[in-house]
Amino acid sequence: xxxxxxxxxxxxxxxxxxxxxxxxxxxxxxxxxxxxxxxxxxxxxxxxxxxxxxxxxxxxxxxxxxxxxxxxxxxxxxxxxxxxxxxxxxxxxxxxxxxxxxxxxxxxxxxxxxxxxxxxxxxxxxxxxxxxxxxxxxxxxxxxxxxxxxxxxxxxxxxxxxxxxxxxxxxxxxxxxxxxxxxxxxxxxxxxxxxxxxxxxxxxxxxxxxxxxxxxxxxxxxxxxxxxxxxxxxxxxxxxxxxxxxxxxxxxxxxxxxxxxxxxxxxxxxxxxxxxxxxxxxxxxxxxxxxxxxxxxxxxxxxxxxxxxxxxxxxxxxxxxxxxxxxxxxxxxxxxxxxxxxxxxxxxxxxxxxxxxxxxxxxxxxxxxxxxxxxxxxxxxxxxxxxxxxxxxxxxxxxxxxxxxxxxxxxxxxxxxxxxxxxxxxxxxxxxxxxxxxxxxxxxxxxxxxxxxxxxxxxxxxxxxxxxxxxxxxxxxxxxxxxxxxxxxxxxxxxxxxxxxxxxxxxxxxxxxxxxxxxxxxxxxxxx
Amino acid sequence: xxxxxxxxxxxxxxxxxxxxxxxxxxxxxxxxxxxxxxxxxxxxxxxxxxxxxxxxxxxxxxxxxxxxxxxxxxxxxxxxxxxxxxxxxxxxxxxxxxxxxxxxxxxxxxxxxxxxxxxxxxxxxxxxxxxxxxxxxxxxxxxxxxxxxxxxxxxxxxxxxxxxxxxxxxxxxxxxxxxxxxxxxxxxxxxxxxxxxxxxxxxxxxxxxxxxxxxxxxxxxxxxxxxxxxxxxx
Lengths: 528, 234
Known about the structure:
The complex is a heterodimer.
Chain A: H1 17-21, H2 26-54, H3 65-100, H4 108-127, H5 155-182, H6 195-226, H7 240-274, H8 281-294, H9 310-322, H10 324-338, H11 347-370, H12 372-378, H13 382-412, H14 418-444, H15 459-488
Helix pairs in contact in A: 2-3, 2-4, 2-15, 3-4, 3-5, 3-7, 3-13, 4-5, 5-6, 6-7, 6-8, 7-10, 7-11, 7-13, 8-10, 10-11, 11-13, 11-14, 13-14, 14-15
Chain B: H1 2-19, H2 25-47, H3 52-82, E1 106-114, E2 120-124, E3 128-131, E4 136-145, E5 151-160, E6 168-173, E7 179-181, E8 186-195, E9 205-214, E10 232-233
Parallel strand pairs in B: 1-9
Antiparallel strand pairs in B: 1-3, 2-4, 4-8, 5-7, 5-9, 6-8, 8-10
């Protein structure tokens, strides 16, 4: 049965640049988000490769220490706010209306605005690189007083860019909540929602709760710089540690904003290729909720070394460890879904399995870092760098790769080349581990992060990591090639695409027509 | 009518925040920000009638925006109550403690840390004092302005371990006010304190650290009132 080819809206798809600038179509805006994030991924990747090139051998080789600091700052900001988050919003735009049988997002014009803010925000941010005094150099966490007393002039541009990103995220989140709550096809209950919608719904609430706090933090930085306040200066009655509290009150939920939609994608991919229903659907929903709620009471585990009282350290340590429980439920459910399933290993499934293995490793290093007395040793070392790249790259980014291959046939109407896809998978996963696994060792041995030079005994591991990173970076050109090749042609995809795929998305023909579900579909059992 | 009155009230509160003399720049900024978001919150609540879900989401956003600024006073209150972060009460204590606990002797260490951009000589007169809980003690810090122009400094204390900060009572301290020194001028800046008799039994050693900051640029003359009775210029 196909709902798709009946379009009740009789207008042509606008052509040329106007189609993209004025678009209110969720698929077009989703595509814009995804391309934008891919561009930002390469920009942030160039910064990463410059960092790794500098660290290829000890001593100052390629860039000045000042520029190195700017590189780490820009790499972090661009990857978090420019690559991962817009990619996730892009998937939400494309897939949520298709999954719940809605004709479009609930607030289509707002949707256009929330995307088109982003290019401006990142133009402002990236332009700081070419300003006198250089780009922001205080790390993506912009700790005071580095960003207040010692921040370069371009800090003000950074503040404005972060405000814009925040507005964009907030508008996007309102839209996603309104869509999921109001626009579900008749008969689809909340507990029948595909898990990707559930995780995004919860993520959207996290965004609404913490993006205003980030906006408050940058506003206070701006006020400290120009308006005579001293929120983060002790001499005027403020406290630099207050900045860290405010920042991490935003920052910790932010890392779940990055990972929860990835959990949703994995929960869609695994059942398809295991040809079984997702094991423990309800427990997945409640585990996601539990992770989201716990994320608000663990922020100070980023600050164990700021001189907290013992009681505070114990509280944040145990609260952080508690997060391992719902996360463990999720990993258990994914593995149980695969158990005794009729599994096949197409590229999306490979990425999903790699996600489970590598994300769990990142989770375990996170558990190590959560132990307050041990954290004093690990704090600000490359162990932390290894940890968060295992959860952000091997977690979020791997899920994004897998989900791209999973839904690419639905978007383009063509099957991608499975051979090239698998080649991309193996290159990515192997080079990822070559890059980041050695960082655990140098970190435990005491190599500090955010320093452009290192002690001689760390040379070999850094050399290995640099080689891995260039392999990783170049492998992503293959990803770009596969996407372009699939858009241009390939084996036509059926509407179901994957043998084990279930849900409304796969009732629509491939490629998904410009308008879908203009008349609401009948929902019987979205899992069946 | 009641709604209109609410906004008039918010406007009035803004005027009070603006004119209240004891408010620092921080307090004013936080006050304005919170009033702004309370205003936006109420505006949404009263006049956003159509999409109730979107209205509720907007309420969440404005509420959290206000909360972000509310964190500033909340943090101060929390630090005052718990002594978190080694922060000390900067108010003057009663000059007569109850009883002296002769059975215990606490080692009090005095250290300084220079703010990077503070070109003053600054050091404690005594690096260590032995005091009984409840006993009044007096010491001083030596400060010299090494530059060729008048500067104003503010000293910020910090206590380690932080849990005893609320038992460290200052009767008189140069950190209560700004310190102004002319070119090449030097002074002994006085400090009089006692340890509360309820001082925790498991602590034998306390470190009081002062960091001095150059606040010449930020300080208005009215702030600068050096009236410490035991500070004497040399």
